[in-house]
């Protein structure tokens, strides 16, 4: 996302707001094994940081209860580091005794 798009997102209306963060854009909802829960990938602004910088946030969301649960947020620098690791990641390394994948 380039800087012009980020400014457009900040100028748009928020989608959700609570005492901790403001959701400006939901990028995707990833289905989970539960029909009630999804993982939301979204752009958020954390209120306690007192900045207009957006972070990529991946957080569980209950569609049934309309509430957020645990998740993780990544700043632009952290996201760049994460993507570097993911480029070299081999999904086959995840195989274990439970063989979930």
TrEMBL record:
Protein known as: Transcriptional coactivator p15 (PC4) C-terminal domain-containing protein
Organism: Candidatus Xianfuyuplasma coldseepsis
